[in-house]
């Protein structure tokens, strides 16, 4: 499986020996690992093999760049039932290859085994290029909170798929032919629009802003993370690690037109679509946006959206009740999002 | 799962952030990954959770040292069904921790998820300490072939377990209480001996000669690999990569007394036990011994057993029929081992 991947300058020794050798010019290696299990982290009915390949790489390299590092190498463990179509494995491999090209890393090794459960294990490596890793514990009172990348689109895409399956038994944008392995993104039934397609695509193939991770490190970010569980929840990790609190300004969140369209389709009442979309931006995970904290006087490029400020750590009472991230000074539960109650 | 592991000097940033940061003082990182799937790579009936933890680490760090590198960091993906006893996960973790201590590496990150199939994904990292990686393609005519570590014991242990299960439905050395998670090694029914216990233990917890990998690199090894599929089969990789052939001298293989005892129990006839044991040494995998090729004038420490020589590459005919590794100048099939026909 690993022989067909292109090499980069970081690959000193590629697949085929006991182990690979990857450049670590900085003298340190950033490393992270994730498991993706069919039925829990992806569904073959909802995502093509190529999508799963893209996503497996994206969520790992997003963690690498969230440390301020540059992606270098990737290792893939692939456990598959014998009846898995060869075409699925080939399309998965193509997705991995293409996402690695987007992120700038290379596949350096892997292991392919049999299993009753289709399972993908990814380990991603990165190089800090001489910078300090941007951890979660460096945020200071007076810093500003910003994000870059998409927020809420993936969650909207997932909600559309769930709604569609519940209604008709066939997911939105997924023809039965698409299930065999070809990329279904863009195959929409009559009536689906570009906005919905974009939300579905972000769910199936998130597009982390890879270059923005090292950029934030160069700009002096004091803390950074990959938004995988939802912005409010993930910024809670920064607050706890840094001993601070964060207040977000809801008016600073400008929903993408695709997201507004999705929340309308999902049933947000007229006049409440912006509110509903903002709640998805606060709570929706898996877009793999980057959230970072910067000193107040840093001039940020415009793709970094400033959405909040860092304040003093709350008292013990606030700490215990988990209210370190507020929106407009108000406590929000689960980022305010409940996809069964959109109104 | 990863918070309880001790740190080493190689751990710059441990578990808990988006990614770990591991020292790579050499400017390169050695990296390898393996998946272990229950029912295919281990059985909970045959190995304790602690054994599985030991083995998962051992087989990955064996690959790292087989490049001539020093183990540094390890990442663990752990996919488990919800009904897995917590005690199993805790014992597995203890096995990982203890084997890391033996190898000299540290656990730096991980991911724990749910799955219907208990699956363990390990990625191991290492540092070359300024040496060139010892690849498979450097063997030259006139070099000598040597190994260090155990050969054949793990295969004998597996054969004993299979024989025992076929005979009685209960594996050798495994009480029913042991299956819940406690280490069963050493729990033998009346009549089992130290030799059999050692073979079972090597199957459950292989003991790779970690220090010998960097040692071989310092001694000038021209090729090296971890013996995981059997010596003859694995040396075939060296032959193909290096464009050479290897002849092994069967008389140079001195079977361990434990191995001789096991082959007697497995049915080798009187007077043929040494032959049978040697066949297991040639074909048995999973002990994770190291096999290396050295220039002829290198003085090897006595734990390196010289067992063969490197010759010129064979002609096209020999290459196509896969006979690059011979024993006493004779072609052997599957290393000469067939555990259904020991006599």
Main beta sheet of chain A: 7 strands, mixed
Distance between the termini of chain A: 48 Å
From the 3D coordinates, which CATH architecture of the largest domain in chain A would you assign? Answer: Alpha-Beta Complex
Count up the helices of chain A: 9
Low-pLDDT runs of 5+ residues of chain A are 174-190, 335-343
The order of strands across the largest sheet of chain A is 8-10-7-11-9-12-13
Instruction: Quote the average pLDDT of chain A.
Output: 89
Binding site for Mg(2+) 3 (chains A, B): 18, 63, 226
Protein name (chains A, B): Thiamine-monophosphate kinase
Pfam families (chains A, B): AIRS
Catalytic activity (chains A, B): thiamine phosphate + ATP = thiamine diphosphate + ADP
Structural overview:
The first copy, chain A, has 343 residues and is of the alpha+beta class. Chain A folds into two domains: 18-127, 60s Ribosomal Protein L30, Chain: A (2-Layer Sandwich); 135-343, Alpha-Beta Complex (Phosphoribosyl-aminoimidazole Synthetase, Chain A, domain 2). Helices cover 31% and strands 23% of the residues of chain A. The first copy, chain A, is built from nine helices and 13 strands. Chain A has helices spanning 49-65, 86-103, 153-168, 194-204, 212-219, 231-242, 257-265, 273-283, 316-321, and strands at 11-13, 20-23, 28-37, 70-80, 106-114, 119-127, 144-148, 223-227, 244-248, 289-294, 305-312, 325-327, 330-331. In chain A, β4 (70-80), α2 (86-103) and β5 (106-114) form a beta-alpha-beta unit. In chain A, α1 runs parallel beside α2 (86-103) and α7 (257-265) packs across α8 (273-283). Chain A is globular and about 55 Å long. Chain A starts with 10 loop residues before the first strand and ends in a 12-residue tail after the last strand. The model of chain A is unreliable at 174-190 and 335-343 (pLDDT under 50). β2 (20-23) of chain A pairs antiparallel with β3 (28-37) of chain B, so a sheet runs across the interface. Chains A, B: GO terms for molecular function: ATP binding; magnesium ion binding; thiamine-phosphate kinase activity. Chains A, B: It is an enzyme of class 2 (transferase). Chains A, B: Catalyzes the ATP-dependent phosphorylation of thiamine-monophosphate (TMP) to form thiamine-pyrophosphate (TPP), the active form of vitamin B1. Chains A, B: ATP binds at residues 110-111, 136, 228.
